[in-house]
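Each letter names a residue; the fold follows as tokens. Both lines appear below:
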Amino acid sequence: MAALTHLMSVEEFRKLPKGGGGVSYELHHGELVTVTRPKLKHSLIQHNVLHLFEKLAEPGSWVLIEMAFRPLPEHEIWAADVGYLSKERRLQADPDDNVRGAPDIVVEVLSPSNTAAELYDREQICLANGTKEFWVADSDRRQVKVTTPDGRTVTWRSGQEIPLSLFAGDARIKVDDIFRY
């Protein structure tokens, strides 16, 4: 493949061949980024969050692993490790496109390949483009950091429960249930 001398557009990205050999691709700031497939622990955490959210989410909402979305219109296609989209946002989504803007909740499971700068960039762009809660799940520390658009960050640790303010009632999930494997 020839090197691009410009920012790659979403249209150009969609014309690329599919990844193989345990990798996929995302488009970050107009540049192609290789994303390796996660190890088992990472996948188990994604699966746990998916099922915990599904039990409490409003009917008609979406909770997906590897939810593809376009936080900004033209040079970005990302995938949330777990994404939550409210029923209202789901009904506005075009099934022939990716989610426009960032999901209501983006959950990123910390991986050795993540850098602090990358996560901060991802968090800030998501929070500025629709995300109401950005989660970073850290299995080594058994904690989840939740940041909201107003800049508030709370770290929830083993033995605590995370309130799900976007879900009805007094919905909560136990931090320890996220890290069961």
In short: Helices lie at 10-14, 40-56, 87-92, 116-128, 175-178. The mean pLDDT is 91. The chain has five helices and eleven strands. The two ends are 40 Å apart (CA to CA).
